[in-house]
Every structure is written in structure tokens, then in C-alpha cells.
Specification:
The chain is an alpha/beta fold. It contains 15 helices and 16 strands. It folds into 2 domains: 225 residues, Type I PLP-dependent aspartate aminotransferase-like (Major domain) (Aspartate Aminotransferase, domain 2, 3-Layer(aba) Sandwich), CATH 3.40.640.10; 146 residues, Alpha-Beta Complex (Aspartate Aminotransferase, domain 1), CATH 3.90.1150.10. The protein binds pyridoxal-5'-phosphate (PLP).
């Protein structure tokens, strides 16, 4: 019997928690407390140079979070009022809000049905003479098609910003996604694969952009003049200490996530009603902030069940498979008077078909910490999905 109807849950021993702390985190924090320098300093600089070096990128800035990092990139590129910025609607709200904070107009492009990343073909259709940038999100930690997007951006004369908030460590065709496009942005918020509670990282190879961001991070001063209206969004030494210490275990955790994800995707491939998100052959490393799962809406309809009924039953079996994003264009903040006044435009909220299907019919995910479990945990996930499917008639 299904657990949702009173049966015994398939899984009762849970999954690993997050964040996972180490003795080194504690020592690093104590050292910072004793140092007397709690503001931005040596540890921030040490993290930035190490991260830049590992990504093969010239400039790196550790900042307050993965929203201001995007805003700083946009403002640093001179993008603002009257400019259009293309983004996917299947992402966290911060991808959108950073564009509005910069004063620019967000324009939604549809997503790819296989990866749920922004679709290059849809981007191409949305470019107008006002377009200044594309923000390509690496959803779930999966690099978007950066070859196609870079080609479009170059040909159409617009900037390409990689929102790698969920994708620390991801590599596309042998190159860190932090070294691709005009700039990249990472989030180090509590749930992220590299965390210091709240934090963000900007990377770029563009010297002019780096100079503009460095100026904004000093409150907008250059050569003794206030040249830009800005705030100091740098991280404190407490956050930098934890970042440096947590960074030590990122590589080994990535290895475990990738191995478990490949195994779980293999188990799902044997089922005809569900699969893992598509995996482009040009991906060298997938960061797996999420493990994206897609149900097949037609197969579900043929059994008379909806994704959300299956998810409720799977969760009752002890597996935290949850529905993902809903389209950003449905959010009240998109059509609010305040937003319209800030950007001086109405945002196009026409529904986009692939995003609609992903949001309301097919998409769901597991959080990254599940992938830090054992091979048995992966089997439990697949077995819970199978158990629920076998009893799907009881959910009608
Ligand atoms: C795709 C995406 N962009 C931006 C952000 C914003 O990051 P933060 O929460 O650090 O501001 C997030 C955070 O969840 C995200 O997932």
C-alpha cells in the first residue's frame, strides 16, 4: 500500500543534510574573530585569487549575494533604463529582480524542453534593437548551450551574462562556465553547493567591466571622486573564511554528486514515463545543484494522474522530489505599478509553451544534498518512483 494511503514508507532513514560543516570552518571563524579585521580584507582577497585561478579567469569579486552580483555586472556594463535584457522564465526570481534593480526591461525567452535551460532559438527571436544582454541561467547547475549563445551574442552585438548561481564548478567544453560569456555570477547562499550563508561571486575577463565593478565596490569612488552611485557589497572576512574553508571540499562533493546522478539517471532511463533532464555531450562537469526530473505528461494523462499527485505520493514514501519553478511572468511583481515605474515599460507576460509544460506538467527536482547520499539512497529514489507508478490508479 502507498504510504500516502497509510502504508509503510519505502524510505525512513532520510538523506544527508546541508550545509555540512567541518572543524576547519570553526577554526577559520575563530581565527577571523581574533584577527580584529572583520570587514573585507585578506581572506576575501585570498578566496578571489584562488577562485579566479581555478576557473582560469582574470577577475573575481566576492560580494554580498548572487543577486547583487548580477546587478553589479549589468550596471558595470552600463545596462539600465530603456535597455532590454533577455532571460529565461524558468529560474529563481533573482535573475529577474537584478535586471529590474538595474532599471532595465526583462524580456522572456522560452526554455529548451530537454534541459530547461534558455533556448538559443527563442533568444534569437526576442532580440530587438533595444537588447543589450542575454542572461543565461545554468539551471540546476547544468551549463546552457554556451556555444550557440556566445555565437548569437557576438553576431547580434549584445552581452552574454552567465547566471551560474547554481553552477559553481560547472565546466562547458573544457572551460569553466565562469570564464565564458562577458561575465558570470555565482550564489553562495545557504542551499548552494559552495556556501558561506549568504554570498555571491562575480567573474570576468573584461578589464573595463572589472574596473567598473571594483569602483562600485568602493562605494563608487575613483581617484578621490564619487564617479558612480554605488554601495559596498563586498563580503565580510567571516563569510570569506567560511568560503575558503568550504571550498576545500567542493571537488570531492562534486565527484560524489556526479557519480550518483549518473547512476540515478541510468535507473530512470529504464522507465518510460519519466527521465532525467537531457545531458549535452559538450558538458565537461555538471554542478548538480538540483537533479532535474521530467515526467512524460502524455503517459501520465493516459493513466489519469497528474505530476502533482505522483509527487505527493513519492514524498510520502520518504523521497523529497518536489515540483520546480513556476514561470516568472506569472509573478505579481512583474506587473506591479512600482516595477513599471522603475523600468518605464510593461513586461511582456505572454505564456511560453515549453516553460508552461515544464512548470505545470512535467518538471520536478531533488536538492543537491540528496546526491551526497549512498548508492542505496539512489536506489530508494528510483524504487519510490516505481512503487508510486505501479499504484498510480489508486491516486485518481
Ligand atoms: C538562478 C539563480 N540566480 C540568482 C540567485 C540569487 O542568489 P542569492 O540568493 O545569493 O541572491 C539564485 C539563488 O537561488 C539562483 O538560483
Amino acid at each position: 500500500m502507498l504510504a500516502i494511503h497509510g502504508g509503510t514508507p519505502l524510505k525512513t532513514n532520510g538523506f544527508p543534510g546541508w550545509p555540512q560543516t567541518t572543524a576547519t570552518d570553526r577554526e577559520a571563524l575563530i581565527q577571523t574573530i581574533r584577527s580584529g579585521n572583520w570587514s573585507s580584507g585578506e581572506k576575501r582577497a585570498a578566496f578571489e585569487s584562488r577562485f579566479a585561478n581555478d576557473c582560469g579567469v582574470k577577475h573575481c569579486f566576492a560580494v554580498a549575494n548572487g543577486t547583487v552580483s548580477l546587478e553589479l555586472i549589468l550596471r558595470g556594463l552600463g545596462i539600465g533604463y530603456g535597455d532590454e535584457v533577455i532571460l529565461p522564465p524558468y529560474t529563481f526570481v533573482a535573475t529577474l529582480s537584478s535586471i529590474i534593480f538595474a532599471g532595465a526591461t526583462p524580456v522572456f525567452a522560452d526554455i529548451d524542453a530537454g534541459t530547461y535551460n534558455i533556448s538559443p532559438a527563442s533568444v534569437e527571436e526576442k532580440i530587438t534593437e533595444k537588447t543589450r544582454a542575454i542572461v543565461a541561467v545554468a539551471i540546476a547547475g547544468c551549463p546552457p548551450d554556451l556555444d550557440a549563445l556566445s555565437e548569437i551574442a557576438k553576431r547580434r552585438g549584445v552581452k552574454l551574462i552567465v547566471d551560474a548561481a547554481q553552477a559553481v564548478g560547472a565546466v562547458w567544453n573544457g572551460v569553466s562556465i565562469c570564464a565564458l560569456g562577458d561575465a558570470a555570477s555565482i550564489s553562495c547562499q545557504n542551499s548552494k553547493n559552495l556556501t558561506c550563508g549568504e554570498g555571491g561571486i562575480i567573474t570576468t575577463n573584461d578589464d573595463t567591466l572589472a574596473d567598473a565593478i571594483a569602483t562600485m565596490l568602493t562605494g563608487g569612488t575613483k581617484d578621490g571622486q564619487y564617479v558612480s552611485v554605488a554601495q559596498d557589497h563586498t563580503i565580510s572576512e567571516f563569510q570569506a573564511s567560511v568560503l575558503l574553508s568550504q571550498y576545500e571540499k567542493l571537488a570531492s562533493e562534486m565527484y560524489v554528486r556526479e557519480k550518483n546522478a549518473a547512476y540515478l539517471a541510468g535507473r530512470l532511463a529504464a522507465l518510460d514515463f519519466v527521465d532525467a533532464a537531457a545531458y549535452d555531450a559538450r558538458i565537461t562537469r555538471h554542478a548538480y545543484h538540483l537533479f532535474l526530473v521530467r515526467f512524460n505528461a502524455e503517459k501520465l494523462a493516459a493513466r489519469g494522474v497528474h505530476r502533482d499527485q505522483l509527487l505527493a505520493a513519492i514524498q510520502a514514501e520518504g523521497v523529497p522530489l518536489v515540483n520546480g519553478y513556476v514561470p516568472l511572468y506569472t509573478f505579481p511583481c512583474v506587473t506591479s505599478d512600482y516595477t513599471e515605474r522603475q523600468i518605464g515599460a510593461k513586461i511582456d507576460t505572454t505564456p511560453l509553451p515549453v516553460c508552461e509544460r515544464a512548470s505545470y506538467e512535467e518538471g520536478c527536482w531533488l536538492y543537491q544534498a540528496c546526491l551526497l547520499g549512498t548508492r542505496e539512497d539512489m536506489d530508494d529514489i528510483a524504487d519510490a518512483i516505481i512503487k508510486v507508478w505501479e499504484h498510480a490508479d489508486e491516486l485518481k
